[in-house]
Amino acid sequence: MTDIIGFIGLGTMGRPIALNLLKAGYALIVHDTDLAVVDVLVMRGAKAGNSYLDIARQCNIVITMLPEAHHVEQVVLGTQGLIHGIQEGMLLIDMSSIIPEISQKIQKVLLEKGADALDAPVSGGPAGAEKGTLSIMVGGNLEAYQKGLPVLEVLGGRILHMGGPGSGQLTKICNQILIGVHLQAVVEAFALAYKSGLDIRKVREAMMGGLANSRVLELHGQKIIDRTFEQPAFKLKLHLKDIKAALEAGRNAGVPLYATSLVAQQMEAAMELGYAELDHTTIMLIEEQLANLKQT
């Protein structure tokens, strides 16, 4: 393969995604603040990038998977960012979940340098990243999408071009609303069932046999039952970041997001108690406190 891919951000999602690219035969240059995880990728066949500039100068495709918008801005547009070593024709694929405005800003700057960008946030969690079955929501120019599609097909089972720059991020925001609101519904249903004397394991099993069934109930419901909050599949602070982005998008579009606002309040209460690094299902602990429950 002629493409040389730079990969920046080897966290919970980034590492398995990068490994799948290596398995597919792509030449990979990786960078992360955690040098130990870089070493893991190097042992699997990747090269270590010394800096963002180093990656920009060597790669015609760069993928970023970073926690928040300010990280993406720093990596791409900062004083030592990719922008200062960018090659004409380079494609940036940002798989982070950030606000659409930042994706639009980055794409505009890259176009001025003769490059292009896709915003390509994902859904499917670490399991989907490992299996290469992620749902990938892509925003950007159609030409850039077609260029990046062979790479994305290695990583995802469902890849959709949603429209222009920022549309992938807007789609991910809608996705996070659905997950957050449904998670809140599961939490409330479990609390009511438990306080009424029901076995929430049986309640979950019953609901999974009908219209109320969902991946949220299946996976997150089980996580609540197992109380594995300290083993985060998706950290509370990151979901709250997405929920706040949804509320901002709602305000900008003039769309009331009442249920989303409630989810934000529940998550903020959990943050106040120091649960930022725990799994987002930890909002169950807030519901238990409000309902005067000790433990499910």
Could you describe the 3D structure shown?
This protein is an alpha/beta fold and 296 residues long. It has two domains: 4-164, NAD(P)-binding Rossmann-like Domain (Rossmann fold, 3-Layer(aba) Sandwich); 170-290, N-(1-d-carboxylethyl)-l-norvaline Dehydrogenase, domain 2, CATH 1.10.1040. 54% of the residues lie in helices and 14% in strands. The chain is built from 13 helices and nine strands. A six-stranded parallel β-sheet has the order 3-2-1-4-5-6, with helices on both faces. It is elongated.
Can you tag this structure with a few keywords?
three-stranded mixed beta sheet, 14% strand, single chain, 9 strands, 13 helices, 296 residues, N-(1-d-carboxylethyl)-l-norvaline Dehydrogenase, domain 2, elongated, Rossmann fold, six-stranded parallel beta sheet, 2 domains, 54% helix, alpha/beta
